[in-house]
Amino acid sequence: MRIISVSDLWKRFNSEWVLKGISFEVKREIFGFIGPNGAGKTTTIRIVLGILNANRGSVKIFGKKPSELSVEERRRIGYVQQRISFEPYISVFENIWLYGYLKGLSKDEAKERALKLINEFDLEPNKKAVELSIGQRRRLQIARELVYKPDLLFLDEPTIGLDVESKHKLLNILRQLEIPIFFTTHNLWEAEKLCDRVAIIHQGQILTIASPKSLIRETRSENLEEAYLKVIKNETLNISKYKNNL
Ligand SMILES: Nc1ncnc2c1ncn2[C@@H]1O[C@H](COP(=O)(O)OP(=O)(O)OP(=O)(O)O)[C@@H](O)[C@H]1O
Questions:
Q1: Is ipTM > 0.90 here?
Q2: How far does residue 107's CA lie from ligand 1's centre (Å)?
Q3: Which residues form the ABC transporter domain (predicted)?
Q4: Whose CA is nearest to atom 13 of ligand 1?
């Protein structure tokens, strides 16, 4: 089943085209969206979620246009943004519990889920959010998003600031969720370990979509990072060749 379908999506900010006709589908899988800074990853997530409008192209999420999703359907989509935000002066437990409650869980359900996640994410329940380190804040932000068991999760560079052990724990938790995940990262080791398929986006265009294994094999690389660099370099060479012919 297609969870997300994006077809020929174009987006312009002022006079600059940042998405130039991208198309992809996300099934029941962990789908990695990888590319350099400014390639258009966050913009794509925002269009898929209906936060931004595209100039051209179509987006379907659970078979509907983003604007046609019901409140309940939208409530069941998780989005962990790059920017960390939560209630700073209440405790870790209250932050997670309250979010679950506001998303529609009963008080007891929200409490039970919050305690389980605090344990899984190795957080201190009574610390105020403002007292947490950057990595702990990131863990709180992700735990909070999981409290109401979303049906689909968007994670925009969720592991920035996490230490090695926390990263491993997070990847294990994500794998066990068994929900479709749209995941952006600059850490290709993570993408290789976690993603069923990855799309490489470069200057607003998708260069390739494949499983990490087949991309590594086809580019005769040792790992995804090497494969990624080869794909991007090849594209850069093609662009300069094109420019030289102008
Ligand atoms: N609201 C906006 N107004 C103008 N330009 C924007 C806006 N949002 C994004 N852009 C531009 O669109 C391009 C793509 O940005 P986007 O945030 O999607 O990139 P990204 O791939 O997520 O980058 P990063 O890896 O650095 O997070 C960038 O050149 C950025 O400056």
A1: yes
A2: 39
A3: 4-228
A4: 38
DSSP 186: S
Residue located nearest, by CA, to atom 6 of ligand 1 = 13
Give the residues surrounding ligand 1 with Cβ less than 6 Å away. 13, 18, 35, 37-43
Report the alpha-carbon distance of residue 144 to residue 96 in Å, rounded.
Answer: 5
The pLDDT tens digits for 6-60 are 999 999 999 999 999 999 999 999 999 999 999 999 999 999 999 999 999 999 9
Tokens of 220: 């005769």
| Strand 197-202 to 205-210 pairing | antiparallel
Q: Take atom 29 of ligand 1 and give the residue whose Cα is closest.
A: 38
Contact assessment for residue 232 and residue 200, using Cβ atoms and an 8 Å cutoff = yes
Closest residue by Cα to atom 8, ligand 1, is: 43
Q: Which atom of ligand 1 is nearest to the CA of 43?
A: 18
Cα separation, 182 vs 27, whole angstroms: 10
Is the CB of residue 179 less than 8 Å from the CB of residue 150? yes
Q: Torsion angle of alpha carbons 113, 96, 182, 81, nearest 10°?
A: 180
- What is the set of domains in the chain, with CATH numbers? 2-244 (3.40.50.300)
